[in-house]
Design goal:
Blueprint: E1 3-6, E2 13-17, H1 27-38, E3 42-46, H2 49-57, H3 67-80, E4 87-92, H4 94-106, E5 111-114, E6 139-144, H5 152-155, E7 164-169, H6 186-210
C-alpha cells in the first residue's frame, strides 16, 4: 500500500480516500490535504487497488473495484494506522461513501465526506442512503448546494441519522466549483470546505481526549 502523508507530525490523523475516477494526487485532493495539514492535522492518502494498478500500468479507465474490495481496503488502512480509535476517515465522493460504510464497524473518531454521492447524476431514485439512516459515527458532509449527486433541495427530503451534519458550499458542484455568475469562486469554496473540515476533525479528536 502506497501512502502520501501531509502534516506527519500531528497526532490528529485523517485517512483520506480518492473518488471513483481520479487518483490520490489530483489538484482537489492536494489542496484539501495540504490545507488540513496547515491546520495541524496529519492527512494520509492512499489508493484503492484498481487505482494503484492504473498508476503502475499507465493505463487509464476501467471500473472501480467491487464494494467488498473497497471496504476491505478501508479496513486494512485503518488497522495499519492504529485502529479506529486513533483515526478519522473520509474522502472525495466514492472514497467518502465507503468510509461511512466502515465507520461504525471500525469505531473511528469521525468521518468527513467531500461531495457525498447520494445518487448517480440524473437518477435521483437510485439512492445510496440506507446505511446513513442509522450511522452512529459523527459525520460531516461538505456538499455543494447544486451537487449533481445530491443537491441541497434533494437532501432536505432524506431521512438521515442525527450524527450527520452538513457544510453547504455556495453554488458548488460535485467538486465544489461554482458558476462564475454566482459571485463565488473555486478557491474560496475549497478554503471554506477545508476550514469546516478542520474544525470538525479537531472537535472529534478533542472529544476523544476527554473520554
Amino acid at each position: 500500500m502506497q501512502y502520501l502523508n501531509d502534516g506527519s507530525g500531528s497526532e490528529l490523523v485523517f485517512l483520506f480516500a480518492h473518488g471513483a475516477g481520479a487518483p490520490m494526487d489530483v489538484p482537489f485532493m492536494n489542496k484539501v490535504a495540504r490545507g488540513l495539514a496547515a491546520e495541524g492535522i496529519r492527512v494520509v492518502r492512499f489508493e484503492f487497488p484498481y487505482m494503484a494498478a492504473r498508476r503502475t500500468s499507465g493505463k487509464k479507465g476501467g471500473a472501480p473495484d467491487r464494494q467488498p474490495v473497497l471496504l476491505d481496503t478501508w479496513r486494512r488502512v485503518v488497522e495499519e494506522h492504529g485502529g479506529g480509535e486513533r483515526v478519522a476517515v473520509g474522502g472525495k465522493s466514492m472514497g467518502g461513501r465507503m468510509a461511512t460504510m466502515i465507520a461504525d464497524e471500525m469505531n473511528v473518531r469521525g468521518v468527513v465526506c467531500f461531495g457525498y454521492p447520494f445518487h448517480p447524476p440524473g437518477k435521483p431514485q437510485q439512492l445510496r442512503t440506507a446505511h446513513l439512516e442509522s450511522l452512529r459515527t459523527p459525520t460531516l458532509i461538505v456538499q455543494g448546494t447544486r451537487d449533481e449527486f445530491g443537491s441541497r433541495e434533494e437532501i432536505g427530503q432524506y431521512s438521515l441519522a442525527p450524527s450527520i451534519r452538513f457544510e453547504w458550499i455556495r453554488d458548488g458542484n460535485h467538486s465544489l466549483k461554482p458558476r462564475a455568475a454566482s459571485g463565488a469562486d473555486e478557491n474560496g469554496n475549497i478554503s471554506s470546505a477545508i476550514g469546516a473540515a478542520a474544525a470538525f476533525l479537531k472537535a472529534v479528536f478533542a472529544a476523544r481526549m476527554k473520554s
